[in-house]
Each structure stands twice: as C-alpha cells, then as structure tokens.
Write a structure and sequence with these properties.
Blueprint: H1 2-22, E1 24-30, H2 37-49, E2 54-60, H3 63-75, E3 82-86, H4 90-95, H5 104-109, H6 119-123, E4 126-127, E5 130-131, E6 134-146, H7 147-152, H8 162-172, E7 174-175, E8 191-193, E9 196-199, H9 201-214, H10 231-245, E10 250-254, H11 256-264, E11 270-274, H12 278-282, E12 289-292, E13 304-312, H13 322-335, H14 338-344, H15 354-357, E14 377-378, H16 386-401, H17 407-429
Length: 430
C-alpha cells in the first residue's frame, strides 16, 4: 500500500511537471512602480488565472532604467517578451531596430483592432507607416477651473474658444481695488486673483505644444526636421506671451509649482496641468473646481498634449519561439480589452478607447469632463529625436515667456539648435 502511494505521488509530480513544461512563459517589463503598480499586478494575476497554457512573469522598474537597458538587452538576445514604452521613447527604439513591427496579420490573429482605439493615441507608436505598439495607458493635459471665481466673475461655463478664454481670464483677474486688466486704473503689481498662469519648464513647453497643434503646426516637418519657426508656431507662442504682457491676465515669472499652489489657494481661475493632478485638487479643502478639455486657444483645430504607454514586442535572438510571440500578442490583446482598460483607469489613467469612455461607471466621475477631448490628444512622438526637439522647444518657450528674446528669435534659435542635435542623432542611427 505504501509502495503504491509513493508511486502515485511520483506519477502526480511527473504529470504536474509535464503540465508546467507545456506552459508558455513570457516576461513583461513595465515602469508602473507607483500607486498604479498593484493595479497592473492584479491584471497580470487575473490573466494568468484565466489561462491554461500561458503564464506571464512581470517585472517593474523605473522607466529611465528601462531606457538604459533595453537596447543592450536586445543586442545580447535577452530582451523581455513584452515591454511597456512611453510615447516619447517608443519611436526611438523602433528606429534603432529594438522593436518588432506589429503586422496586420499579427493584429488580426490576436484580435486587436486599432480602429477601437483613439486614432492619435494609436498612431503614437507608429513609425514610417508601421505599428510598433498597442496603447495600454493614456494621460492628457487638462484645464482646471475654479468654479467660485468664475461665478463671481459672471462666467457661467468653462471657455471653449480663445475669445471666451480671454473674456473669462480678464473678468477673473482682479487687483486690490476691484479693477480688471481692461480698466484704465488696473494695478498689475497688486493683483488679488489672476485669470490664468503661463509657466516655463517642461509644463510650459507642453502647454505651448497644444496651442501649436491647434494652429495646425507641429514641432517637426515631413522630413522629421525641427520646424517650429513658422508663422503658425510664432502665433501660438506669441498668444501665450501676450497673456502676461499684453492682456495682463497671467502673473509674470510663473512656474508649474507656483501655479499649482495658486490654484489650490483659490488665487487663480484657470490652471493647465495633467489629469494626474485631479485627485490632489479633489483633496484640497475648500476648493470648488471643474475639469475640462483644453479650449481652442489656437486657430484651426482642437488639440492638447497627451502622454501614453504602449505594449511593444522587442526584437529577439534568432530562433525565437513563435509560441512565445503568439502568447505575448494574446496577453497584449487581453490587457487592452475594454473591461481591463476600464479597471486600469482606476490607477489614474484615461480610457484608451471610446467604448471605455462611454461606460456608465463614469456618469458621476469628474474625470469624464475630459472625455470629449480625448479624440484630439496628441503626443510628441513619431520621430526618434523627441528629446532633442523638446529640449530646444522648451528652452525657446522659456526665453519667450521670460522676455529674454522675442518669440520669433527664440523659436528661430530653437530650430537651429534642434536641427544640430538631430543631425548628430541621425549619424548615431546609421
């Protein structure tokens, strides 16, 4: 009897080992290391429990570490099966050959339909007409507005156009004597509440990028050279500068931090920042506010900056198991399904698909105030030298806003500097 029990135990262990050997194991590397990490780990666990032939092993680490390690991992043939890559990095890795194309056959076999995603969001991971990633995470620039200050100024609804925005910002800008910028005796050195803020740094460049896109322009031309010195770009930046010096509805020398503080304290009517500020503002005692898409401060179209993360399949060594690629695509398809994206948005992101934004669970959620603008969210992506271009653009915005250079000169100098760096980047890719 004892011998039979031992035999059965060995048989069971052998069967379990054979079953485990039949499973395809894939590795998934991502940078969701903050409060969003438990949400991602929960999704991976749910996927694994739903599968009999696939198991996903996940690893999280800071995004910057991945940017440093991914190319060497690919070169050594030790790349993860799936890597989440952000909007400003994905094109660079695609251009360097570190990622594999997601072909039409790949997408069809995995039942991934790009038409279900917001168009500009999907296109963020496209390069030279090919797709390299599926959107798993999305954020966007938003306009926060102080309801009390707008009501006090007689503004009933958040502005949607440049004219409405200027009117509201002017009405909400009040000096110690109750005067507004369009009053002859307005004292801009003793302002009690400002209409808005114009900031420098990364956020300043991000806000300006949205207005640039609204004017129908972009940071690069069709040849992927820096091209933000044209008339449309100049007009966009000049408007922001004029908010400070001409219209006097924004405090001079504003920073992202000072504008966040001013909005929390009820000292500014409009604050432009990311959707990630929503929970912090909701936690601010005494602050009554709303959230809406960035109004059309430009002349041609609705647009705002957006950030994202995309699930990509890195290049693997020769002889890579086709079953692993198929399993990776199956996981990508599963993780980006509407019900899973809906769960993921609890971590602070936005819907990647209209079907998710239409879910009834958002009916009483403040973030839904942004949803009408999601089809018009654009990333700084599509070219391998995003960092070089953004660096020059941000510096030009700062020089303009601080009055160190005219807008035309600042943007002209910025284009020259960006193209110098682009030339170096092109040589590095050869």
């Amino acid at each position: 009897m004892k011998r039979r029990t031992v035999f059965l135990a060995l048989l069971m262990l052998t069967a379990m080992a054979a079953f485990a050997a039949d499973k395809v194991e894939i590795t998934y590397l991502h940078g969701f290391t903050g409060p969003d990490r438990p949400f991602m780990e929960s999704l991976v666990e749910k996927f694994n429990s739903s599968q009999t032939g696939i198991v996903v092993k996940t690893q999280s680490q800071p995004w910057g570490t991945t940017w440093q390690q991914l190319a060497p991992l690919v070169a050594s043939g030790k790349a993860p099966d799936i890597v989440a890559i952000n909007e400003d990095q994905v094109t660079g890795f695609a251009a360097r050959g570190a990622l594999t194309e997601l072909t039409a056959a790949d997408l069809k076999n995995a039942n991934i339909a790009k038409a279900k995603f917001y168009g500009p969001l999907w296109a963020t991971a496209d390069y030279q007409g090919k797709s390299y990633g599926v959107p798993v995470h999305s954020v966007a620039l938003a306009m926060y507005y102080n309801k009390y200050l707008l009501q006090k100024a007689g503004i009933l609804n958040p502005p949607r156009t440049r004219e409405e925005f200027l009117k509201a910002a002017t009405a909400a800008t009040v000096d110690k004597n109750g005067k507004h910028p369009n009053d002859a005796t307005f004292d801009s050195t003793n302002v009690v509440t400002w209409g808005t803020g114009v900031v420098t740094g990364w956020m300043g460049g991000t806000i300006a990028y949205g207005v640039l896109r609204q004017n129908g322009a972009d940071l690069v031309d069709k040849n992927l050279n820096a091209a933000f010195g044209d008339a449309a770009s100049i007009e966009a930046v000049q408007f922001l500068v004029d908010l400070v010096y001409k219209y006097k509805v924004a405090s001079p020398n504003g920073t992202e931090e000072s504008e966040i503080a001013a909005f929390r304290q009820g000292k500014v009517a409009f604050n432009f920042n990311g959707v990630w500020m929503l929970e912090q503002y909701k936690a601010q005692d005494g602050l009554t506010f709303g959230i809406s898409p960035v109004p059309r401060l430009g002349a041609k179209m609705d647009a705002a900056w957006g950030g994202s993360s995309h699930l990509t399949l890195p290049k693997q060594k020769a002889g890579y198991d086709a079953a692993k690629r198929a399993a990776a695509l199956k996981f990508v398809a599963w993780l980006t399904q509407p019900e899973n994206n809906l769960y993921w948005t609890q971590a602070g992101g936005l819907p990647t698909q209209p079907a998710v934004a239409a879910d009834k669970s958002y009916e009483s959620n403040m973030v839904s105030g942004l949803f009408s603008g999601l089809p018009n969210v654009y990333a700084t992506s599509g070219y391998p030298w995003v960092g070089q271009v953004r660096g020059a653009w941000d510096a030009a915005i700062e020089a303009s806003v601080l009055g160190k250079k005219t807008v035309t000169q600042a943007l002209t100098d910025g284009v020259v500097e960006a193209n110098k760096q682009i030339d170096q980047a092109r040589k590095a890719l050869q």
